[in-house]
Amino acid sequence: MKIIFYSLTIFLLSCSFQAHSLEKLKPGQPMPHDLFINLAKKLNPAVVNISTAQEIKQRKYRSHNNHPYFDLFDLYFNQRGGGGFGQNQRQRPAGQGTGFIISKEGLIITNNHVIEGADIINVQLSGNKKKYEAEVLGRDKRTDIAIIKIKTNYNLPTAKLGTSSNLKVGEWVAAFGNPYGHTHSMSKGIISAIGRQIDELNSLPFVQTDASINPGNSGGPLVNTAGEVIGVNTAIDARAQGIGFAIPIDDVKKVADQLERYGRIKRGFLGVSLADISNEQALSFNLDGSNGSLITSVSPNSPAKKAGLKSYDFITHYNNKKIKDSGDLVKSVRDSVAGKKAKLKILRNGKKKTLTVTLGEHPDSKKIVKNNTKRTYNGQKAPFKLGFYFKNYNKTLAQQFNLAPLRKPRPVIIEVKPGSPASKAGLYPGDVILDVNKSPVYKSTDVIRKLKQNKINILRILRYDEILLAYLSVNN
Q1: CA 109, CA 159: separation in Å to the nearest integer?
Q2: Cα of 215 vs its chain's centroid, Å
Q3: Per-residue H/E/C for 337-389
Q4: Tens of pLDDT along 440-450?
Q5: Which residues have C-beta within 8 Å of that of residue 375, sequence separation ≥ 6?
Q6: Which of 36, 218, 259, 304 is close enough to 309 for a disulfide, judged by CB 3.0 to 4.6 Å?
Q7: pTM of the model
Q8: Distance (Å, rounded) from C-alpha 415 to C-alpha 130?
Q9: Active site (catalytic) residues
Q10: Is 24 helix (H, G, I), strand (E, B) or coil?
Q11: Can you give the residue ranges of every domain in the chain?
Q12: What is 223-258 written as a DSSP string?
């Protein structure tokens, strides 16, 4: 009897432990009645509320709600202006958001847009009215991820990071956060979609969920039924209900370490301009297909230049991964760490080559705004009814089109006829012609000589700070 009683006791204790433990549900597995109760108990201690403030330097107020997707922390901006000029106010509330603790020493993951522009960042823990001022260790606007840190005199509870590589549409998830200032709130739902690309918001594809996400949830964890963080809540679609987005945690892991160590993402940089080609255009380059990316220019003193890459090289593989198009190559390079070596497989004049390049760090550069002012000039007319006019480079043209200084003079497009092959190819006044059919041109007469009838003409052009390819089909 003693043996039976002992075994029964062990069995009951085991059942009791399993009832309060968390595990990822398998397809078809019944949901425990206390699943979300246990999720709340496990996650809430590691979830923090974030409030930010800005020092008042002038009477100017921010507004971010100019996009169909709301920034989730923007509700609390004081845009009314407050009292009069004689007021002694030194700070104003800027926003609220969420974060979650990933180390007992106080490292916290949140969204960049939660803390961007803030002079003061306060963090409040679960069940604690005290606010801790946080230090920003690193942040990145492109991925919308930030790492902040608080100091306490005790070890903090942490959230366990899971993986987003095996997510399935339909699995249960829970979102934690600080919606509308209602601290430490939890909502449940399912994964509605994965790989949701919204370039206006983020460079990383989102996990979509119908778990309720509201302003203030930004930076909070999206967790699976095992209580593992599988995403960072980031955005909602203001035009709909039940549509929220989270950054996959595997992507967050890739950047979090660099943000903590360097304060920024040391993204890889090749120093090339790229273009996609169609299957028809691939024939002009003696290629079997269009999968890959065509180099249109190589920057001087860049990693690509040092590795021996040239214009018209066609990149087919990056570190043994097949390249689909230019966007795929750009993402692969940017996801690589500066200073690392990368192996490129290319086609050059129909021959296969393998080159190794040491990646540089991507420089910060300002985008140049295109000048759309319409101008008309007298110039050389392109043959074969291609529909554009061009002229030799001179100081007057450079000033009128806001052109950068050129090391060697090149012809400049000064007019494009609407509906013409040139217009359909995307040419604009102010484009500088570098090559025609892969041959360099320096004068207008060079362009006339190298344009061909009854074939697709390839123009390599300089437009502000970009090198582009244009394909002109001759009208019959």
Answers
A1: 10
A2: 21
A3: ECCCEEEEEEEECCEEEEEEEECEECCCCCCCCCCCCCCCCCCEECCCCCCEE
A4: 999 999 999 99
A5: 400, 401, 414, 415, 429
A6: 304
A7: 0.60
A8: 66
A9: 113, 144, 218
A10: coil
A11: 32-79+90-265, 268-361, 380-473
A12: E-TTSEEEEEEEEEETTSSS-EEEEEHHHHHHHHHH
b (16+ CB within 10 A) / e for 125-164: beeeeebbebebbbbbeebbbbbbbbeeeeebebbebbeb
Contact 234, 277 (CB under 8 A): no
Structure tokens at 356: 């190794």
Q: For residues 151 and 335, what is the distance between their CA atoms, to the nearest angstrom?
A: 31
Topology of domain 32-79+90-265 in CATH is Thrombin, subunit H (2.40.10)
Identify the top-confidence range among 78-87, 117-126, 135-144, 217-226: 217-226
Apex CA 394: angle with CA 389 and CA 397, to 5°? 60
Domains 32-79+90-265 and 268-361 in one fold: no
- Of the chain, the end-to-end C-alpha distance in Å amounts to 100
* Residue 389 pLDDT: 93
268-361 — its CATH code?
2.30.42.10
Q: How does pLDDT run across 135-185, given as a tens digit for each residue?
A: 999 998 888 999 999 999 999 999 999 999 999 999 999 999 988 878 889
Give me the residues paired with residue 222 across strands: 175, 231
More reliable by pLDDT, 396 or 85? 396
Residue count of the chain: 476
**Residues 71, 420: Cα–Cα separation, whole Å:** 42
3-state secondary structure of 107: strand
